[in-house]
Design a protein that fits this description.
The structure holds two protein chains of two kinds. Chain A is mostly helical. Chain A is built from 13 helices and no strands. In chain A, about 75% of the residues lie in helices and about 0% in strands. Chain B is an alpha/beta fold. Helices cover about 40% and strands about 15% of the residues of chain B. In chain B, helix 5 links the parallel strand 8 and strand 9. Classes of the chains: A mainly alpha, B alpha/beta. At the A-B interface, helix 3, helix 6, helix 12 and helix 13 of A face helix 1, strand 11, strand 13, helix 9 and helix 10 of B.
Chain lengths: ~350, ~375
């Protein structure tokens, strides 16, 4: 009986994995095919397969590739990070930014601009500064959480405390920045893929690969399965629950910090993708959900990027921030899954 | 899973549809400056006596000359009546400060923003403590405004923080007038702005002179362009370095108007407001000239940054026609005030130096190839 259920679960997992990969491929192809230049789709594919390529279609394609891949990787990374965070916080409402990463990144950027305004012309310095800020936020949250007894509960509360302190601080600083740059500050760190470059794809890919590698090297999926049920279960298996939560949180922060630095703040995916993965897989086994959530997050972000492109062309308003569009794409899907699983 | 696709499609269609409906039904601001001083009253009476079949029209002409109070209609379509000329004025935007000083009303200005730096007199008066700073352009401080006890606040209807101020200022009995400001879509709306402010203070003659001067500057450019008969250049205008996002000026903004009047083709013409573009759009449009606001950053650093982006593939970059506007040059371009004629001349100089001469170098930096 138990074996039968196991076989059934594995079947369902493999099916949903293949299904989500196929969907992702389809979405990615659509994403490559459309864009604001209205380049004919025929030209796109002729160029893609190296048959016939004009100069202009080549540079457009290079950019489209960078943009679509950035969206895809951002989604994948945020989903992975979201799954990790929800497990170590033992809270389904946790999301990647709950560890105080976004507001500290913003604060770091604001300070940098105040000290040296020319930094806005150095994309990579800005990325490094945002990343350092995000990781500093994580360290502060962890320190606070350790002082409070390092439980999943204290981690969330510390994260909220750090987020509040620094979002207040960053807004004060950005108010001052405004007078230096003469531009409204809300444009900073607004998650958008419209300025994506090929280097961004390399940064995101290497981060995603490294972190996934570490997750499996440490055997995190199995350990997290036990962790969700309580510290005592982890101890029974011979692992250290505190170390486990610190390692997972560090990985999640590295992942999220990179996306904050490269793309900006993109909401919803980190929160919803893990849920969607669990609902589709029908289980919360991390060996399944970690992998599945990567593809689901990637699909969500890529389709949100497609919608952003369509809106930019049709509404005459220009580019929409990705974070605004992700929830429009993802929320109805999540709602559908919730209703469906409720009926079951 | 069967209806999944269908549900998603319906959801997307509804959302996009909803957006359009929201767009079309959104209230539009009415802009009419119609405070007619003299008007003709026409009464038509039709008398049809039975024996003679003829129509008789009686026209009564009635002329009323209105002295005080002065009544204006502002950019929000509100009619505002002034019993007496305001004595203490707060300006919420650099362009408004420029208009007030150009109209010779500088002695009535008691509050300006931290961005107001023209005419240079403003900076001196602020330093001497005769004019107070009431915060930034996007962050006016209500308390500071109220503490100045003004009898008139002038804001820009295109700037949300200014609109948000309205009730709090009116609550204490202070009049607040909105001009189009950054929401102006062409030169005529800037003229209207100048005329509206002039009317409040009864200095219409000065306004007429300012408008005449601007008109002359613009006519100088358009005439020369017409004589030279040059091919129009495609222009990309950016509000900051690319890392800031490719924010440009759409076809219904005064910056868009300035670019087309100076003989350029604004590539963001078909967008509305201040859109964010993506690299793909820019590459496909392939601009001949790129104009970037430097935001005080290092010039060579910005050019190097552009070199690393797809913008390097454009004709403008390849031919070394990327221009950075800093300080005064940028202020002239982005302020819908009395210097808008100079903005047209500036852009014309950037686009067609062979006709208008090179732009002034310290404030306009041209990249080196």
């Amino acid at each position: 009986m138990a074996l039968e259920i196991h076989v059934q679960n594995v079947k369902r997992f493999i099916f949903s994995l293949i299904f989500s990969i196929l969907i992702l491929c389809l979405i990615y192809i659509v994403s490559i095919s459309i864009g604001s230049s209205m380049l004919p789709i025929r030209d796109v594919f002729l160029c893609l397969f190296g048959i016939e390529c004009r100069d202009i279609s080549e540079s457009i394609l290079r950019y489209r590739w960078a943009r679509s891949s950035t969206a895809l990787l951002t989604g994948a990374i945020l989903a992975l990070s979201g799954t990790l965070i929800q497990s170590i916080a033992r809270n389904p409402l946790a999301e990647p930014y709950i560890l105080g990463l976004s507001s500290t990144a913003l604060t770091a950027l604001a300070i940098a601009i105040l000290i040296w305004p020319t930094v806005i012309a150095y994309r990579y310095y800005m990325m490094v500064i945002a990343f350092v800020g995000a990781i500093a936020g994580y360290l502060l949250t962890t320190a606070l959480s350790v002082l409070a007894g390092s439980t999943g509960y204290s981690l969330i509360l510390s994260g909220i405390a750090i987020t509040s302190i620094f979002s207040g601080l960053s807004h004060v600083l950005l108010y001052i920045v405004q007078s230096k740059l003469k531009s409204p500050y809300h444009l900073l760190l607004m998650g958008s893929t419209s300025t994506a470059l090929i280097q961004d794809v390399l940064i995101l890919t290497s981060t995603l690969l490294c972190c996934t590698f570490f997750i499996y090297i440490f055997g995190l999926p199995k350990k997290l399965n036990a962790y969700v049920f309580g510290d005592s279960f982890v101890k029974q298996l011979g692992y250290n629950p505190k170390l486990l939560s610190i390692i997972s949180a560090l990985l999640a922060s590295l992942l999220t910090g990179t996306t904050v630095a490269v793309v900006g703040i993109v909401g919803f995916i980190g929160l919803a993708a893990p849920h969607i993965a669990r609902l589709i897989a029908g289980s919360s086994d991390h060996r399944v959900t970690l992998a599945l959530s990567i593809f689901i997050g990637a699909s969500l972000a890529t389709s949100a990027d497609i919608l952003a492109k369509i809106l930019a062309v049709t509404t005459r308003q220009g580019e929409f921030p990705l974070g605004v569009v992700t929830s429009i794409i993802g929320a109805p899907f999540l709602a559908y899954l919730i209703i469906k699983s409720g009926k079951r | 899973m069967k209806y999944l696709g269908l549900i998603i499609i319906i959801a997307i269609v509804m959302l996009i549809g909803g957006y359009y409906i929201g767009q079309t039904t959104a209230p539009t601001t009415i802009t009419t400056i119609t405070a007619t001083v003299t008007y003709t009253h026409v009464v038509e009476k039709t008398i049809t006596p039975s024996p003679i079949y003829a129509t008789l029209t009686v026209i009564e002409t009635l002329t009323v000359v209105q002295e005080t109070p002065i009544s204006i209609v502002d950019a929000l379509g509100r009619s505002i009546v002034f019993e007496k000329t305001p004595e203490r004025v707060v300006s919420l935007a650099p362009s408004i400060t420029e208009i007030l000083f150009a109209l010779g009303l500088g002695n009535r200005v008691v509050g300006v923003t931290s961005y107001c730096n023209y005419p240079p007199e403003v900076l001196r008066l602020v330093e001497e403590g005769k004019i107070a700073v009431i915060g930034g352009y996007w962050t006016p401080d209500v308390e500071k405004i109220l503490a100045l006890k003004p009898d008139l606040v002038i804001g820009s209807s295109g700037t949300r923080p200014h609109i948000q101020l309205r009730e709090r200022v009116e609550e204490v009995g202070i009049k607040i007038v909105y001009i189009k400001g950054s929401g102006a879509t062409n030169i005529y709306e800037i003229y209207e702005d100048i005329a509206t402010i002039a009317k409040i203070f009864g200095v219409e003659d000065t306004a007429r002179k300012i408008i005449q001067d601007i008109d002359n500057e613009i006519r100088y450019v358009t005439q020369k362009l017409g004589e030279a008969n040059v091919a129009k250049l495609k222009v990309l205008q950016l509000a900051g370095p690319p890392s800031w996002g490719l924010y440009s000026a759409g076809g219904d903004t005064f910056i868009g108007w300035v670019i087309s009047t100076a003989g350029g083709i604004n590539i963001a013409q078909r967008f509305t407001g201040w859109p964010q573009l993506d690299y793909e759009f820019v590459i496909a449009e392939n601009p001949d000239v790129i104009i970037v606001s430097a935001m005080g950053a290092n010039y060579t650093a910005i050019i190097e940054e552009i070199r690393g982006t797809p913008l390097a593939d454009t004709k403008a970059f390849k031919e070394g026609r990327v221009y950075l506007l800093d300080k005064e040059a940028n202020d002239i371009l982005v302020r819908p005030g009395p210097r808008v004629g100079k903005a047209v001349v500036l852009v014309a100089k950037i686009l067609y130096p062979e006709i208008f001469g090179e732009p002034d170098t310290p404030i306009v930096y041209r990249m080196h190839k």
